[in-house]
Amino acid sequence: MRVEQTILPPKENIMLSEKDISFILNSALASAKIERLILPHMEMRPQIHTLIHGEIGTGKSSILVRIGKVRNIVPVISLNKSHIQGSVDSDYKDFVEPIIWEHRRDCVLMDEFYLGIKNHQARESLTTLLSLMENPHHKKKIGYRCNEVNINEPDGLYCHVKNNTIEFKTRFVLIANTMMDIYKTKMQEMDALISRCVCIPFYPTMKQLEDFASGDIKFFIYQDYKVKNKVVRISKKEYDKIRAIVKEYKVPKPKYLRTIGDLCRFYAVHGKILDEEFRKVMELSAYTPDSSL
Which domains does the chain have, with CATH numbers? Predict the structure, then answer.
């Protein structure tokens, strides 16, 4: 795979094709099926999280709606602690499942995500979510009685509520969109979210908006990618190939490990290196605004 150093244009001029957006999001959805991703020297999360960022009114939400219809999932506007950690019905003492458990092996859709610097509650919720995006295991004490829950599933996922303790292990993919300028925020939580996601710029031209309005394009076409193995082991030979690709592309040091990780996760879904598609993933993973690679 021959790659060259690339000077990236301003984000307003970066717009992926319908094919590229579809490949990334369908790969992300498929990654929810993978249980483990094992490299020659370590293990990493196999799930591909994505963050679509762009101007208001350009069709970002239509992508989430399309995914939601196919997967029977309703997008949420924001995530609060009860979404992430679960809650207890005050009248019947029943456990209300967090959506990251409810949509296990699938996706959590977050529409028009926004985080204000003074919204401390939302920032705290995001911090909890960030931890679960990397390691989706949660345990917490609750200060009130709750009816017991004991769910154990064959692939190791579980949800237990007992002795005033909620504990669950889940597996999910986050697909969110936002109109925030994600590269100008000064919040550590947003920087951490960006580092955990493949960030998809969504700044369509007027011609693309006209084509979308006329039905000539959809921006996203759903395809159910089949995953061959739920436990994926990448051999040293293939891992070295991925590292060589990233090195040849001259990815900057702060993005180096992240870019390797993203390519490994796409490899886990497809079982091989895809030259054109991997190059696009590298451009997004290694993107640094107002600078070159």
Answer: 21-233 (3.40.50)
